[in-house]
Amino acid sequence: DPEISEMHIENAPEMSDESGDSGRTRTESATSVSSESWQNNDEMMGNLRRAQGLLDQGATPLQIIRQIFPDFDVSRVAMMSENAHFALLSDLLERAPIRQKLPDFNSLADAVELFKTRKNILILTGAGVSVSCGIPDFRSKDGIYARLRGEFPNLPDPTAMFDIRYFRNNPAPFYNFAREIFPGQFTPSVSHRFIKELESAGRLLRNYTQNIDTLEHQTGIKRVVECHGSFSKNTCTECGDQTDGMVIREDVLAMRVARCKKCDGVIKPNIVFFGEDLGKDFHRCVTEDKIKVDLIVVIGSSLKVRPVALIPHCVGKDVPQILINRESLPHYNADIELLGNCDDIIRDICFSLGGSFAEMISSYDTIMEEKKQKEPVKEHHPVVSRNKRQLISQQEFLNICLREKNGTSESDDEPNLKRPRMSTSDNMDTEKDAFHDIQKHKSEDDEDTMNSDDVLKNIKHPRLLNITDMLNDNKCVAISTYQTVFPGAECSFDLETQKLVREVNHYARSGCSTSESSSSDTLSQSNAISRAQSMDDFVLLEERQKLSSEQRSDSCDDNLQYELSDPINPET
Question: Where is this region: Disordered (predicted)?
Fold first, then answer.
């Protein structure tokens, strides 16, 4: 519906944002909804129609929020300015609805079969695919944002480093940090090579990357869209002069602000900062690809930065989706979740696919071994399993936990023809009994409980098992019907709720415009959905934290924050 796709909230005050550096239009209604047709969604468009109608009738943005989003607690934002209310309404209207999981796709084997049979695979990659190359990711507990808080305490918010308004006022912090992610220092990972192999096999529809490290081009991937730009080109913020990315290399490595040779203006790499438009090419490609795609794979992304985060929600409901990431994402329902280090997971998939994919792994290992012998490498290449991992069940995983508790071990090379019976009770006959026996640790009166407390020596709370601490490099565990956990996963298993839990005590916020220190003027400059912006709004983040705290059991440590995924069937 072209008329609807061009609608926006007319009553919002207009804000002007000078942008001579990029030539992009910076004047837009503060709560305008993007006119890019690929983002249209029936539910979103219905809500937009209602909002526009209510505005035409004279309703305030707060009244509209009450009408359209009755579950949202408006009492906590009632005292904010009308500009802030418009910004909040815009964010709520632009949020994609929760995707419904397809029941036919669940396991690691299902994922392998999808890679074998699908012809138009759309892969969305984030910083997680480059971590093994030595490039830090952004939002993990040891990521860029967590480090920025300590290294640059004067930043109003860690994401200000990549905010266009902050850069214009003070580019020094960006140049102090840019050398850590500047291209030319890193070697493409197994994940990059896997995507190239899919392209060579004629199965890659497109690789949408949120990364700016240019490793896709270094790998030779042709069908790639650099959603957030890259260091490959530069633009002077004063005269607009365009230069090759390597022009600023010396300045970046010296942590010095690069200056234009023509006018002495500050040079900005052609990276899409928060608050900038992604450009027409991105939107054109998504519009074309959403019709053709038959499989979506998200690798190493938190899906928190829009509009890229909306891509999985714009395709047909029957298109299966796979998440390969260190942690489960509470705002994204993938059909199959493979959790752990991306490269480790991709290796197992390649071994299962065989042929050129397995040969690629062998070739990569040889290259990296030769490189390691010739010279000290900057990249961090963790020890990886050279063979396909043994997939174990949830019960087998708990078996390992009890053996750990009892100080016994099972040879990794020994065929698992007959699983040893776990025993902390004379009456235990089956692995199912063992599962329930471990759960009994919450009862202080149970003698077995007192013994099973010792099982949890590597956990953060007496009821949480750190899964990856219990796994060696040779194993992965099918912890639920649709979740398989590999080494490196940032999650734990809750014995009491029988759920996988995701820790959120590392840096989870993203988007300088949502900083607590932002003024109402800053809040009123709400970015349109077609610009790069965070999924976490200043109010929505508080709302999620509130919901998360309501879900936690009273028996939990108050200082430990985690989010729950879907419940696990003990009999699966």
Answer: 1-40, 404-430, 509-528, 541-572
Residues 393-406, mean pLDDT to the nearest whole number: 78
* CA–CA dist 471, 478 (Å, integer): 12
Q: When comparing pLDDT for 20 and 494, which is higher?
A: 494
In CATH, 108-228+272-339 is 3.40.50.1220: yes
How many Cβ atoms are within 10 Å of 104's Cβ, its own excluded?
A: 9
Joined together, the tokens standing for residue 187 give: 């070697």
At residue 376, the pLDDT reads 59
Q: What is the pTM of this model?
A: 0.71
Which ranges constitute the DSSP H helices of 189-259? 190-200, 215-219, 249-253
In 342-409 the beta strands, taken as DSSP E runs, fall at 390-393
> Which among 228, 283, 313, 441 is annotated as catalytic?
228
**Backbone angles phi and psi of 470, in degrees to 5:** -90, -10
pLDDT above 90 covers a percentage of the chain that reads: 33
Q: What percent of the chain has pLDDT over 70?
A: 66
Residue 476, annotated as binding a ligand: no
- Among 485, 482, 478, 514, CA closest to 502: 485
User: What spatial distance separates the first Cα and last Cα of the chain, rounded to whole Å?
Assistant: 45
User: 498, 504 in Cβ contact below 8 A?
Assistant: no
Q: How confident is residue 453, by pLDDT bands cut at 50, 70 and 90?
A: very low
Angstrom distance (rounded) from CA 348 to CA 423: 32
Helix, strand, coil tally for the chain in percent (to 5): 40, 15, 45
Among 448, 501, 453, 460, smallest CA distance to 479 is for 501
Per the structure block, which two tokens stand in for 139?
């939002």
How wide is the angle at C-alpha 178 spanned by C-alphas 173 and 184, nearest 5°?
A: 170
Exposed/middle/buried for 443, CB within 10 Å: 0-12, 13-18, 19+?
A: exposed
Question: Pairing state of beta strands 229-236 and 499-503?
Answer: unpaired
Averaged pLDDT for residues 303-323:
91
Q: Is 314 known as a binding-site position?
A: no
Instruction: Identify the pLDDT of residue 84.
Output: 87
Asked if residue 239 belongs to a known ligand binding site, the reply is: yes
Domain boundaries, the chain: 2-94, 108-228+272-339, 390-472+474-504+548-567
At residue 98's C-alpha, the angle toward residues 93 and 100, to 5°, is: 145
Amino acid of residue 464: L
Annotated catalytic residue 441: no
Is 350 flagged in the annotation as binding?
Answer: no
Beta-bridged to residue 234, according to DSSP, are: 243, 269
Q: Report the mean per-residue pLDDT for the chain.
A: 74
Work out the angle between the directed axes of helices 342-353 and 108-117 (0-180°, nearest 10).
Answer: 60
